[in-house]
Design goal:
The chain has about 375 residues and is of the alpha/beta class. About 45% of the residues lie in helices and about 15% in strands.
């Protein structure tokens, strides 16, 4: 018994050693004969040894992962075909119909609407979606991704409000499990993957151009200011500079929980400038609404004393007094197109380069912005 085990190991080791010199030689044929005689079947680990790669790479190569070098994919496929390996070959009808979606919070109107688009597209194609909230924490986002992968989902849509890119290892781990990731709402990843969302440059351009057209020359922006500056604050700063306007009125609210941000502090900062701004762009509509509410309590008149503009076109934008000018981001469309892209990736025969899909925005003019001068 022990001798037979030793013999099998020796034959396998000999084959691994000689594989590079005799891909179709006697050693290969002898090994195949022994596998057949023993009633066994070649494993991913054995293919990995023969190909000189790790088992995860074998799985990705057989799946056609474009991030595995073409020559490696070819070598692995030839070995798998030679050994008649069928371990990772599943008929289309047996593929899991479960997908995953990670968002910061469904309490945010933007993500609630985005998820509606995701679910509508998925259900129409016969898929189910498990949605997890990460509570705006980067570490929770990674935990949610891992949890969904453990549940055997075929693909995951990932939305995060964090400025720090999700590590490359997260994507590699997903691909090792045959899970396809798609980034939504400009969620940054260290690895290049498909992404669907708005353009922050377009959002900033719409806001700045509209206020400038009303005669405003000193325009403030209030929101979370990362260091170094990136994302929406950086886009607003660039839009102001392109217009030849000062980009020095950037106010950090210190949180992404805009529903509870300190609006009084924002107005204090505006008043403290030697030449106060006459218009304010808020990161999101809830923050803009809090600023307007606090301004009203202080006796300020919107828009005569200060024009206020939001972003996201939250349902409350039409309920404030005055009604809030905002930018519609079409989150339902982002959700639909992200899910459509994910389903396309799951069913495409030959992988293609990562796609970047931009969903256009729209300026919604209401009563909170007025002409200056």
């Amino acid at each position: 018994m022990a001798t037979d085990h030793h013999q099998r190991v020796s034959v396998h080791d000999m084959h691994v050693k000689e594989w590079a010199h005799c891909q179709q030689g006697d050693c290969t044929l002898y090994f195949l004969k022994r596998v057949s005689e023993s009633g066994g079947m070649v494993t991913v680990r054995q293919i990995a040894r023969l190909a000189g790669v790790c088992p995860a790479t074998v799985t990705r190569a057989l799946r056609g992962d474009r991030y595995v070098r073409a020559e490696v994919r070819q070598r692995v496929r030839e070995i798998a075909e030679l050994y008649q390996y069928r371990g990772t070959q599943r008929p289309a009808e047996s593929r899991t119909q479960l997908l995953g979606c990670v968002v910061p919070s469904l309490q945010f109107d933007f993500y609630a609407r985005l998820v509606r688009g995701v679910l509508g597209e998925a259900f129409a194609e016969g898929y189910q979606v498990c949605v997890l909230e990460a509570h705006s924490q980067g570490v929770h986002t990674q935990t949610a991704i891992h949890t969904l992968a453990e549940q055997g989902v075929a693909g995951i849509l990932v939305g995060s409000e964090q400025f720090t890119p999700l590590p490359r290892e997260v994507v590699l781990a997903l691909r090792g499990r045959n899970v396809t990731p798609v980034s939504i709402d400009l969620t940054p990843f260290e690895a290049e993957i498909d992404t669907v969302g708005n353009s922050e440059e377009e959002i900033a351009g719409l806001a700045v151009e509209y206020l400038a057209s009303l005669g405003h020359q000193r325009i403030a922006f209030a929101g979370m200011l990362p260091a170094p500056l990136c994302g929406r604050p950086l886009a607003v700063s660039r839009a102001l500079q392109r217009r030849g306007l000062p980009a020095s009125y950037l106010i950090d609210v210190g949180t992404l929980d805009f529903a509870h941000a300190d609006a009084a502090r924002i107005l204090d900062r505006i008043a403290a400038y030697p030449h106060p701004p006459t218009a304010l762009i808020a990161w999101e509509d809830r923050l803009a609404a809090r600023v307007m509410q606090t301004a009203h309590a202080r006796g300020l008149r919107i828009p005569r004393d200060l024009s206020v503009m939001g972003i996201s076109n939250h349902e409350l934008a039409s309920l404030t007094t005055p009604s809030l000018t905002s930018i519609e981001q079409h989150p339902e469309e982002i959700g639909r197109r992200a899910m459509a892209l994910l389903l396309h990736r799951l069913n495409e025969e030959a992988p293609t380069a990562p796609a970047s899909i931009t969903v256009p925005c729209r300026l919604v003019v209401r009563d909170s912005c007025g002409r200056h001068g």
